[in-house]
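We treat protein structure as text, and this decision shapes the records that our systems exchange. Such a record has a labelled line for the sequence and another for the backbone structure tokens. The record that follows is passed on verbatim for readers who wish to inspect the format:
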Amino acid sequence: MKSFEVKYTKGHLVDILTNKRIFLKRGGMFNILGDDNQFEEKDELHFETLPLEETEKLNQLERNHKGFKLIMIASKYQYLVYRIGLSKKTNEDKENEFLFNCTLLEDLYIRSKNDEDWSLCDCICETTQCLDGDIQMIEPVKGNSLNNLFSNMVSFYFPMQRSGACNAFDYFYLTDDNEAVRLCDIKMYNRFQNLNGKRKEVIFKMKRIDKEIQ
């Protein structure tokens, strides 16, 4: 049995004697001993921001995005799914792509200054389940936007296995929490509308209404 005196720094276990990282076997079981005051109840960087109610959220966006037109494209508690594919697998990974759920904890808006170029506003959201792919979710992951949620999921579960960047309009699909969704549903069968399709639909309706008013 091996024994090390270690320092935990920047998410790594470092051997104090050699000043080198200690690499643990993925999926291994270990006994960890330390003084009581060396353990934390939660991560120092734990996501703490509380979601806003409907009126509060709109007021916040209007303050933060003066001069922008705002349109809500999904409401609080809307259920979405998204895929994470890996460019690098470890011996712990039985799959190289996974499907996760996402629940909006605030209303989701898009914004534009010219009625042509629309981008997503921040919206607190959360992933609690892997719907397809063999991975045990240790704990839920939150983000202050869909892009941030995707990045946080990669950092938490797949560090250094792919980029944390994505285009949320293309990656996130609208569905509901009662429907069973698999990877093939969004990759092959186009059963669900992604946010880019929803954006186009909402903008088309807005322009048609504006034209009728004129």
Remarks:
- The helical segments are 54-64, 146-157, 168-171, 183-187, 195-213.
- The chain has a mean pLDDT of 92.
